[in-house]
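User: Please fill in residues for this 267-position structure.
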């Protein structure tokens, strides 16, 4: 059930899943029938500041949508920032509680950002995985690209979330036929920076780009004609990765001048 005001709708939380207690969780809400977004975009979410003792105030923050644009619910993936104004409220929500959702979606981390290319690289750190989960449920991405490389860089292996959903992506009936008959492939590369062992990559993404390890793990070289690259998460990671790619001649996509790279900074 959702109710509306001029700028936002009041949605009901329907499901909460804790991945790492005190740090990472996902949740779903009802979705207003009028809400439209493109996979990769974000919505502004609002919570009453009850924990802060100011229930009449609303804190708003941007959140990438995890769920598919065709799903009848909304799903989000969140960090818990110690003493964070917004997440201290958000983490207390349970099924049946209310979350405010802005009616307008924003952001340019979408497939429309690129022209051409046949291989899509999705590079994320931490909760920056979120928009890629929505993009990967979109049949358009599988029509447009022959190869997809999804990279998720986290501190510890417990933070490698959504692994079952990633492994099961192409079981989605909307994607299964498309992938099977057109030989579409996705490579998932988990990266863990504060643990080593069990064969996973464990350096930061700019290092792995510099030493060729990321391309080796993907089984694909980065290429100006074929590769289109999305980067999402920690702004320092985004900037360092963008610099490493710029040194190799990859350019950021602008509305007036399509390029190879599209980014979203989370703070
Ligand atoms: C376009 C956009 C999309 C976003 N999408 C998401 C999302 O899907 N999931 C999500 O959890 N957050 C997302 N964020 C961040 C989110 O808007 C808030 O910053 C986050 O909820 C923390 O709010 P807060 O008030 O508790 O702390 P804030 O006062 O907002 O942040 C305090 C500090 O916490 C750290 N921080 C903030 N967000 C994160 C994060 N996601 N991961 C690690 N450290 C962080 C930074 O150091 C920041 O300076 C997004 C931000 C932007 C701009
Ligand atoms: N409640 C808790 O117990 C707890 C504990 C820890 C953190 N937190 C919260 O979580 C936040 C951190 O969340 P997070 O771990 O998802 O995000 P993060 O600090 O951005 O780390 C995510 C990944 O990005 C990498 N990274 C960071 N800066 C980079 C750069 N410049 N270039 C390339 N890679 C980079 C990190 O590598 P490195 O490992 O090398 O940095 C890590 O692998 C903190 O701000 C804090 O609010 C909470």
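Assistant: Residues filled in for all 267 positions:
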């Amino acid at each position: 059930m959702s109710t509306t005001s001029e700028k936002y709708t009041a949605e009901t939380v329907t499901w909460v899943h804790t991945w790492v207690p005190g740090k990472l969780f996902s949740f779903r809400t009802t979705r207003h029938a009028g809400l439209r977004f493109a996979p990769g975009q974000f919505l502004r979410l609002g919570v009453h500041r009850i924990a802060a003792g100011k229930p009449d105030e609303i804190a708003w923050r941007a959140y990438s949508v995890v769920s598919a644009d065709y799903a009848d619910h909304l799903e989000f993936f969140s960090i818990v920032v110690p003493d964070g104004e917004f997440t201290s409220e958000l983490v207390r929500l349970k099924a049946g509680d209310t979350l405010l959702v802005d009616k307008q979606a924003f952001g340019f981390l979408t497939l429309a950002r690129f022209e051409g290319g046949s291989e899509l690289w999705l590079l994320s750190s931490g909760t920056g995985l979120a928009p890629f989960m929505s993009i990967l449920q979109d049949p358009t991405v599988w029509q447009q690209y022959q190869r997809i490389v999804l990279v998720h860089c986290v501190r510890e292996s417990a933070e490698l979330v959504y692994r079952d959903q990633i492994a099961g992506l192409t079981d989605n009936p909307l994607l299964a036929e498309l992938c099977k008959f057109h030989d579409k492939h996705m490579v998932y590369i988990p990266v863990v920076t504060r643990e080593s062992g069990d064969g996973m990559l464990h350096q930061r993404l700019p290092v792995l780009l510099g030493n060729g390890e990321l391309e080796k793990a993907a089984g694909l070289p980065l290429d100006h004609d074929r590769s289109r690259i999305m980067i999402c998460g920690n702004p320092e990671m985004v900037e360092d990765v963008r610099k490493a790619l710029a040194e190799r001649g990859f350019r950021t996509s602008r509305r007036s001048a399509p390029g190879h790279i599209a980014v979203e900074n989370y703070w």
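For context: Residues 42, 61-64, 76-79, 81, 84-87, 107, 126-127, 130, 264, 266-267 surround flavin-adenine dinucleotide (ligand 1) (CB under 6 Å).
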